[in-house]
Amino acid sequence: METKREIVFYKHYFEDFFMPLSEKVKNKIDEVLFLITILERVPAKFLKSVEGRKGLYEIRVEYESNIYRIFCCFDKDRLVVLFNGFQKKTQKTPTKEMNKAEEIMNEYLNDK
Question: How many CB atoms sit inside 10 A of residue 73's CB?
Answer without folding.
Answer: 24
